[in-house]
């Protein structure tokens, strides 16, 4: 690396290594310091064998959602019948929303083959991709960013005594027993029941009582694309309806006033998270030899960056939406999203 002289590790004495560690400690700010992906990333990638991630997950998610909107628009323009994300497909074959399938059968008070098969298909899809729909196709997060942009929070890393006084090296890629820290742990690691699941039970119960899918009346996914279709008809056919006023008003209420919609209220998220407890693929994996916590640095960047509040170190994270925020935020480049679980 430019500006550094290479020295064989075999000729470096323990005293010399301790001296280097003390030098590093003197150069660092005391206690805690603000860091970013850019400021810490380069040096730690060089030291730990981490690698950069030029792939932009945020841009990819934006393109994926734009493709969904384009597909809906193409269906309207060419009358292909592809419908919306609530029931993407072709004619009678559609990837029906799993909650919509349950509500359909509960509303009719009978088990119907068509919704049952579509529900089974969606269960298989969710078991493979987990909650990816929430980050890659659902309009709710994009509406929240549009109406209530989030400020980029600075993440702090504790450069405490274990890191400053450590004379160990990770050249052999082994965990340092003296300095290594335990995983941070996310607030939503593992299978958890919360207010979303209460909303889910309420939605299913209301459907059984009233005989129609009640939640569909306020579902932000359906309302977003219903508004889009209404605007399409307005500009193409000069058709107006009260939906162009009512649907955006309900969406504004959900996005502006119910700020924790996705994490606290959404029954679709609740149902998908239960199914995603069986998900073992496309999960973020942390390479321990590259993770800063292995060398004693109290780095919490991955957990702080996660919109779902999960820790990629944890063995079970059904709430993970595969958004890639932890991958892009990791200053050491120690996280990857792999198709298959590590054996």
Outline the structure in words:
This protein has 343 residues and is mostly helical. 49% of the residues lie in helices and 8% in strands. The protein has helices at 14-27, 37-48, 57-78, 98-108, 113-129, 132-136, 140-147, 161-165, 195-210, 220-237, 243-257, 261-265, 267-275, 301-305, 325-329, and strands at residues 32-35, 87-90, 93-96, 155-158, 283-286, 298-299, 335-338. Strands 1-4-6 form a three-stranded antiparallel β-sheet. It starts with 13 loop residues before the first helix and ends in a 5-residue tail after the last strand.
Rounded radius of gyration (Å): 24 Å
Structural class, judged by helices and strands?
mainly alpha
User: SSE order in H/E notation?
Assistant: HEHHEEHHHHEHHHHHHEEHHE
Q: Which stretches are low in confidence, meaning pLDDT under 50 for 5 or more residues running?
A: 1-50, 157-165, 170-174
Helix percentage: 40-55%
How many helical stretches? 15
As laid out across the biggest beta sheet, the strand order is 1-4-6
């Amino acid at each position: 690396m430019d500006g550094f002289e290479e020295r064989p590790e075999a000729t470096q004495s323990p005293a010399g290594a301790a001296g280097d560690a003390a030098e590093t400690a003197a150069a660092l700010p005391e206690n805690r310091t603000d860091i970013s992906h850019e400021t810490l990333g380069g040096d730690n990638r060089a030291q730990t064998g981490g690698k950069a991630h030029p792939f932009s997950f945020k841009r990819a998610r934006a393109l994926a959602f734009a493709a969904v909107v384009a597909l809906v628009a193409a269906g309207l323009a060419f009358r292909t019948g592809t419908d919306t994300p609530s029931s993407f497909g072709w004619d009678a074959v559609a990837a029906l929303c799993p909650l919509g399938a349950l509500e359909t059968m509960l509303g009719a008070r009978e088990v119907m083959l068509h919704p049952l098969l579509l529900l089974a298909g969606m269960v298989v899809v969710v078991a493979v991709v987990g909650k990816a729909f929430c980050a890659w196709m659902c309009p709710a997060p994009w509406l929240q960013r549009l109406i209530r942009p989030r400020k980029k929070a600075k993440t702090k890393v504790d450069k405490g005594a274990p890191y400053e006084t450590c004379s160990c090296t990770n050249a052999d890629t082994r965990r340092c027993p003296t300095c290594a820290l335990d995983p941070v742990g996310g607030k939503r690691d593992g299978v958890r029941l919360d207010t979303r699941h209460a909303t889910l039970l309420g939605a299913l119960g209301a459907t059984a009582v009233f005989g129609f899918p009640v939640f569909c009346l306020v579902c932000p996914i359906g309302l977003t694309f219903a508004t889009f279709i209404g605007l399409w008809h307005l500009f193409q056919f000069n058709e107006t309806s009260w939906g162009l006023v009512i649907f955006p008003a309900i969406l504004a209420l959900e996005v502006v006033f119910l700020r924790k919609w996705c994490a606290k209220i959404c029954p679709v998220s609740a149902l998908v998270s239960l199914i995603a407890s069986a998900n073992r693929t496309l999960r973020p994996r942390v390479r321990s030899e590259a993770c800063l916590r292995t060398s004693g640095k109290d780095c919490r960047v991955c957990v702080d960056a996660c919109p779902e509040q999960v820790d990629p170190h944890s063995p079970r994270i059904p709430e993970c939406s595969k958004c890639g925020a932890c991958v892009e935020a990791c200053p050491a480049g120690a996280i990857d999203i792999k198709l298959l679980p590590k054996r």
